[in-house]
Each structure stands twice: as C-alpha cells, then as structure tokens.
Amino acid sequence: MASDLPSRVQTWLAKSGYPHELRCCRAFESRDVPIAVSPHYLDPTSGKIRQIDLIALQSDDTGFFRSYLTIECKHSDKPWAILKSDSGHIGDLHSHCVYTKSAKTAFASKLDNDLREILSWKWFRGNETRGHALIECFSENTDRGYAATQSALGAALAEASRIDNEKYNHELGFFFPVVIVDSPLYTVTLSKDDSVHVTETEIGFVYAHPAPRVEISSQVIVAQIDAIDGLINAFLEHTDRLKRLMSPEVAELLSMAFDSTRPKNAERQDATNE
Predict the structure, then answer these.
(1) DSSP 3-state assignment of 74?
(2) 200 located within any domain
(3) Which domain holds residue 234?
(4) Among 161, 134, 145, which Cα is nearest to 216's?
(5) Is residue 1 in a domain?
(6) With b meaning 16 or more CB within 10 Å and e meaning fewer, what string describes 29-52?
(7) 36 contacts 55 by C-beta, under 8 angstroms
(8) What are the backbone dihedrals phi and psi of residue 17, each rounded to the nearest 5 degrees, phi first?
(9) pTM summary value
(10) Number of folded domains that form the chain
(11) pLDDT digit string (tens) for 61-92?
C-alpha cells in the first residue's frame, strides 16, 4: 500500500486546486511580476485571519506608488457564468478597484481634467460590462462563485486598510481583486423578450461589496486561465497608466519625505545662504 502512496497523492492533488494555483503563479513569475503565494490577511467583515491564493505587485522606484492584484484561483470541472442585469449599470467610477485613502483622494482630483482618458482604459471603461454575480454552473454549492469574489475583494480591502492604518504611510495603492478560473467562462444576459443569451468569454467583471458593508464596493475581474497572459498585460498596462497619472503626487510625497529627513543644520545653512 505504501508503494502506491505517491501516485495516490498525485491523483488527489490533480483533482484539487493546487496545480491551478501553481500554474497561475508560474505565469506571473515568467513575466518577472513579483508574486506572494498564500499570504494571510485580516478579513474586514468577519475579523478572522484568512488566506488569499496570490498577490501580484508592481511598484515605482520610490515605493510611494503601488498596484496590486489580489487573486483567488478557483478550480472546477464545471463552467462558470457571470450574470448580467438588463442595464448593466452597476457601481460608480470609484468602484473599479480598491484604493488606499491617499490613492482615492489623488485619483478623485484627476477626474475633472483626465476623465476622458481614464474612461478609455479597459478596466476603467465604464460599468456597462459588469455583472452582478459569479456562479458555478451545474453545482449544488451555489456559494462558490460568491465566496471567490468575496475572498479577492476582502484581501484587497484588508491590505488597503492595513496601509491606511500605518502611521506616516501615504502610499498611493491601487488594488484590483481577481478570480482566475480553469474551466470555461460565460456571460449570461436576459433580453427584453425574456430570452437568455449565453456567450463564452475569456474575461469579465463582477460588481461586489462585502456584506453588510454596501457602502464599500469594487468590481472583481474574472479571467479564464487561458487568458492569463492577457490579464498580466492589462495589469502592467494599467499600472503604467496609473503611474503616469499619479506622478505629480509621487513627486510631492518624495519631496515631503526628503524634507522630513533633512538635518536641521542643513536647513539653517539654506537660510544663511538666502
């Protein structure tokens, strides 16, 4: 019996979600995107310590700007479906991701002058593409899709809150919750004549909020594993765009940090030179 134990373990692992998680991790590592595996976070709703599968990170050279993906990897032999409402208009412009307080304030200040550009970005394009639920088809467990979106969102909210609670931490942090599935993904809509339309897709968006805190919300990106390279490309592209958008605020934070660390005698010398 002991001799067949490795093969039994291999069979068991193949049926679990572990290979799917490793495949996702390997995709990010192959693109030199820093990735944390199985990090823990304090769930903002329950107050319990939980675990998220992956967190991907991109940062500028100063460390004042950072962009994250909080990723839940879901393995299933059943397809997944994103349910969309008739209008599709769910959420607002501030619900495209989770922000640190500094990032949200800085981002809001850009909306007057840069709104048209921001709305041209795929992940910020508008709410007409969002669904209101992710479900696992043909499953008796109707909560798996909901649990996956809540896990990705909860990790994003927890990490943003952790940064906000750190004294003197003014990080411009943008968190994008993500669910990556390894079986087919569909969007489901209901037309005006009550006919159901099912369309296969590689990526979609679900609007989510941590019940009962409905005032806090974000879209959750749902991607099929075969589209993971496209997901990484979009992450890097949006990170670069946000980095450029936040460059004046980063420069200001860098200046503040420099001024706070200057020796007092240097300030007196500057005053004397004037």
Answers:
(1) strand
(2) yes
(3) 17-273
(4) 161
(5) no
(6) eeeebebeeeeebbbbbeeeeeeb
(7) yes
(8) -90, 0
(9) 0.90
(10) 1
(11) 999 999 999 999 999 999 999 998 765 445 56
